[in-house]
Design a protein that fits this description.
heterodimer, A: 143 residues, mainly alpha, B: 320 residues, 11 helices, 68% helix
Chain lengths: 143, 320
Amino acid sequence: MIFKLATALTFGVFAVLFVLLALWIGKFLRPKGRPFAEKDYPYECAERPLMPAWFNYNPRFYIYAIAFIIFDIEVAFIFPVAVVYKKWLEAHLGGLAFMEIAIFSIILFIGLVYLWGKHDLEWIRVMGLWTSKRSEVKSHGQS
Amino acid sequence: MNPVFRDVLITGVKIAIVIGGMLGVVAYLTLMERKVVAYIQERLGPNRVGPWGLLQPIADGIKLFFKEDVIPAHVDKVLYVIAPMIVMTMAVMPFVIIPFSKRFYLSDINVGILLLLAISGINTYGVLLAGLSSNSKYSMIGGLRVASQLISYEVALALAFVGIVLWSGSMSLVKIVEAQHTIWNIVPQIIGFIVFFIAALAELNRIPFDLPEAEAELVAGYHTEYSSMKFALFYLGEYANLTAMSAIITTVYLGGWQGPWLPGFVWFAIKMFIVLFVFMWIRWTYPRFRFDQLIGVGWKLLVPLALLNIAITAILRIYI
């Protein structure tokens, strides 16, 4: 097993070396010097940029990130059960294994339903002014 | 000869063959894509450099070596240089565990699928860091978009993998291929395959999921500020990711090297290129999603479908 992992690591090192080589060879071939100061500016279709781009971004991104971490950890916990499932079935422990998979999947699914119900899966979240407007439209439509 | 030394030597040669072969495939994939596009749009495509444009990838590569390398003054230099390296390295890494034929594979790791997921997780860092370190608005928006897209679809991808592991009873790709001796995984895992294929398209940032580099709104997305060889690394990384994903789909769902008459390696190549062709075909057939639709498809359609697939597989496994 250690030999196999060492192979993977060696492969990674080779890959990094290849990338470094590709970046290094160009050094001797490409032209040097930069004739225009404008080359240092960020590309904004020839406009002078007003502010740095490190601004506060839409917080929806971070909600997805948190959801991803929770789901990914749960998936990582499912994998061990999934690996032994076949063997346990052969050893007539199938019911136990099936229950484990089922409980995991159901917990995962409840999490998804909760996120869905809180409108956290929608890019444009329904809240505040939007909610009232939308409910008005709905009530008009229904009446 | 000392057996340990011999093993190390053989592994070294294999690594060289795999990296070299992969780079060759990736270089000619750019030509293949351009040719496929051209014929879909009733054009001829590149045909000036060499017969049938066969020397075009070499000409492109040489040109990129000779391009001026601009590192703009406003970037975060360390992250800016590291980002393309992460992308390219992680695009190559999946090939370490893919069995190309019955005998020829680099390493049969017993947690192969977890390793694949880890690699694709690190890949996200590459594009996100490229977007953040560039300090350009287009790059920033592209980088954040790509991050939220990749993590949304990675959940679906991982859940589709769970179905495979349940069915095959192993996380080692070599064993998964051997378990497909009688029937390919695509038949019992058809829902999983559909989920995996759509999620793979999103992970590769290809149409209809190419929001991160939507050229009409974001110029080039997260690699707007990159030039010369660093840009080439992103470009190559994209195609290397495409090759890796096709190889993974071939291995996991289409029976890998298994097939009658022809040697295993030939079967692997045939299946991989069919999957690659389908990826290209889709790219030039469908329009782009809107961003809220894209997130909606990932969480509201693919994740429940993948969970359903796990339930079906677990029940099927009891009776078969």
